[in-house]
Amino acid sequence: MTRSPHVLVALSGHGYGHLAQCAPVLNTLRERLPALRLTVMSELPRAVLAERLAPEFTHLPQATDPVMRMHSAWEVDVAATVKVFDESRRGWNAALQADTECLHALAPDLLLANISYRLLAAAAQAAVPAVALCSLNWATVLAAYAGTRHALHPVLEQMWTGYRAADQFLAPQPALPMPELDNYRPIGPIARRGCRATQALWTELGVAEETRVVLVATGGIGSALPLANWPRIEGVVWLFPGTLDATRDDWFDAATLSLSFIDVLASADAVLTKPGYGTYAEAVCNAVPILTLARPDWPETPYLNAWAHRHGCLEEISIAQFHSGGFAAALESLWQQPLPEPPEPEGIQQAVDVLAGYL
User: Fold this and answer.
1) What angle do the packed helices 78-90 and 138-146 form, to 10 degrees?
2) Which of 16, 149, 248, 256 is most buried, most CB within 10 Å of its CB?
3) Which CATH code for domain 6-189+347-356?
4) Could you read off the pLDDT of 214-252 as tens digits, one per residue?
5) How far is 285 from 346, CA to CA, in rounded Å?
6) CA 226 from centre of chain
């Protein structure tokens, strides 16, 4: 009997963007290899994983690497983040040994990491083929916030050692440049495509035709929204993720809709978000304009914004505008921009071709 190929996915729990990058690839890979066994190591809840991943996967609910500490979905807690990564440096040897033993026990045919540097280093020790898949890496991100803190130099070296140990580092566009890596391989964007069902959305919301719907999607890290100052715009309604503490007749809970999230996004007239791969890629590939919070400190921001300007429509607002509710004019300006033809999410098939080659 032919043995079923087994992939271990090490998935970061820092928001939902890492899952958004991996899920379309894994679902397409399973279509090509129906007998594929999938083990997902992630601190993300199984319910969140199951929303995007096809059925039949084993979940190992544990962290794959240190995670950035956040004040909100768009603001890094730098002091706490530095502390977390410094602690990981001191526990490196024991954790690396534990990861290596775990790989020996699971015996996968392939490790797919997004973006655990330690498990990639362990895979090299355990002689397990390994591929990294991510638009960023933690070394570049940490260096952007930690600056010249000498105590973290060993951590950065550990990170780069792990990333260099991967057979390939697949970087879906728009991605950070990574001149430090010889195994860096840019691929096309990765994003789900939804069904634009505008009429169905209007019907479910009980609003008039031609009403503009704005989806608020700030990512998988919980953040308080400035609802007290939220603007009211004639002919516009707002879809929020989850139950609202207060209600207005132009506010709706997206979780109550029968449409899937990706179909809601594809049917929206705009999405209000912050710079992050998952929502940007899905919005642009579904021809949905983006109203984004300014996030100048995040290393991906210039690459994400440049790509969104080139392939879609993007308008940026300041954090002060967001909190004061002064972003109605920016939204109207966004709708004046002509929408270009959306790009194809060709990175999905490109990544599947690479992974299938190992299996």
Assistant:
1) 120
2) 16
3) 3.40.50.2000
4) 999 986 545 678 888 999 999 999 999 876 666 789 999
5) 10
6) 23
